[in-house]
Amino acid sequence: MKAHNIAFWAIFAGVVALLAFMGDSYWLRIGTTVALYAALASSWNIIGGFTGYPSFATAAFFGLGAYASAIAQLHGVPMPLAWVLAAASGGLLALLLGFGLLRLRGHYFAVASLVVAEVFRELIIAGGDLTGGGMGLNLALLPIPPLAQARLFLLAFSALAALAALLSFWIVGARFGVALRCIEQNENAAAMVGVAATRYKTFALMLSAVFASAGGAVYANWLNYIDPSDVFNVLMSVKPIVMALIGGVGTVIGPFAGAVALAAVEELVTKGALDLNGAFLGLAIVLLVLFMPGGVMGFLSPARRMRKASE
Amino acid sequence: MKAPLLQLDEVSLSFGGLKALSDVSFQINAGEIVGLIGPNGAGKTTLVNVCAGVYRPSRGKVQFEDRLISGLRQDQVAQRGMARTYQIVQPFPAMTVRENVTAAALFGGGIRHLPDARKFADEQLAFVGLAPHADKSAANLSLAHRKRLELAKSLALKPRLIWLDEVNAGLSSDDLDNTLQLIRQIAARGITIVMIEHLMKVVMGVSTRILVLKSGTLIADGLPSDVIRDPAVVEAYLGGHYAEDGSRRDD
User: Fold this and answer.
1) Residue B195 DSSP one-character state
2) Which of A164, A194, A203, B81 is paired with B4 by a 20 to 30 Å CA distance?
3) Residue B66: strand pairing partners
4) How far apart are CA A18 and CA A27, in angstroms?
5) What domains does chain B contain, in order, with CATH numbers?
């Protein structure tokens, strides 16, 4: 394992342990948000970074996961099993979407993927008693004290983020990762050298979706309440992209750095003026694209920077 | 008699109302170096695309090693041992030269173990003379080297047949001689070659047989010396006075 990978795991485990043992409810909430963000950004990075397909479907998978988990639990399925079912539902949706959406490339794919969350939001609103319609769904409170709950969700989201990182590290070194990289670089050339592009990119979208849906599932229990305009919010699709851009698209650690950065800035901006949150996000996107196309990781890696410059 | 390596039976392809290929039939036998020539827009690259799985023929069938391959995808054809280069080279720009060829070995070449694929890639790079550039980014190669990279990638697929789509276009005469040498060496490895070529020097120099395509129809198929004197070819493609001097370049 490379030195910076060891450093990553050391910092990750250290911060989670510190928060779990020492954190008050404020810091636990921030830590949990960062962990959720990291899981979502890392999951987006599999399809958007490694594979080069700029998906705006994260909100669709996140929302589907939240609703699948909530509905399952309201029908008597235990929480952990409901989370697993929700993750599987995201994977299944990605498999179905893959055949249609992944035929499109570039902007066409981005716009088409953006619509998926909107479709689901309308379906959920029209879903009547099953989905609670526009009113949303309430979940049962966990029978444990608030601080223990806060720790539980910190650990749950952290575990999800850690799994996403493990998966990403594996992808980078695996034959599967080479396939994704070929597709990202030149899909035509990928087919020419025998890469079954449709199969690999569908699988990448599925892996990405499983994490986004699992994130939504845990989120439903964290808040005890979900409604369509929250979990299918377009910001759920945009934020993971911004985080990956901040940290470094297509790197494993980048999305984690981006998650810390975005959560920190959101916390500072939200304290000052809640309404400026969206405006800030827009400004951040413009600045990032203009001045830091390689993200934080791009800044740290001179080789990558030179390679980019030579294209 | 041994079955042909590649066999096309009445292959046709239409784009809407435009007939790009009509009833093209021919065979390629193992060990041949076949030149595929014809005026611009004759359908040469389209023919490669039909055989390589980019397009599905509207009619007719393509058989490779006695198996039907028309209808297969590009990646499936590559995995079955038919490689093709693109006229406009298709590298993975942000990967190194070695990574480019390793990817080909890993997927089309069926070497699933990464270190083995890398080793095999290095052998192909040495073969085409790119070994000193293995660690360079593919985006930084000169045109001549990019063409060789394209060849190395094709070879890493462990093909029985390679389509070379204008691998010599845009090369200086020194580079041209090197590539000619390389084509002969590839053939010496037992790989059958079909080359689309505009330079008559190259076609006449290495081909054992020539196919001539005009407006999507095969108008000649034979020995270079015969084809070049075929009245239909002279008329349709070369123009009368070129027929006397096969070494002149057409354009």
Assistant:
1) E
2) A194
3) none
4) 10
5) 1-81+160-251 (3.40.50.300), 86-158 (no CATH)
Task: Show which residues on chain A lie within 8 Å of chain B, measured between beta carbons.
Answer: 173, 175, 178-179, 181-182, 185-186, 188-197, 307-308, 310-311
Give me the residue from A179, A193, A310 closest to B78, CB to CB. A193
Q: How confident is the model at residue A300 (pLDDT cuts 50, 70, 90)?
A: low
Is the pLDDT reported for residue A138 higher than 60?
yes
- Residue B241 structure tokens: 């006075």
- In this complex, the residue of A175, A191, A197 whose CB is nearest that of residue B112 is A175
CB B115 within 8 A of CB B88: no
Provide the residue ranges of all domains of chain A, joining segments of one domain with +. Answer: 3-236
**Residue A175 is nearest to which of B84, B90, B106, comparing CB atoms?**
B106
Express each pLDDT in A32-52 by its tens digit.
999 999 999 999 999 999 999
pTM reported for the whole predicted model = 0.89
Which residues neighbour B148 within 8 Å (Cβ) at sequence distance 6 or greater?
Answer: B128, B129, B130, B179, B182
pLDDT in tens, A218-233: 999 999 999 999 999 9
Residues from chain B contacting residue A201 (CB–CB below 8 Å) = none
Q: What is the CA radius of gyration of chain A?
A: 19
User: Contacts of residue A190 in chain B, CB cutoff 8 Å?
Assistant: 75, 92, 103
Cβ(B117)–Cβ(B111) below 8 Å: yes
Question: Residue B156: its chain A contacts at CB < 8 A?
Answer: 193
Reading the block at residue B183, the tokens are: 């084509």
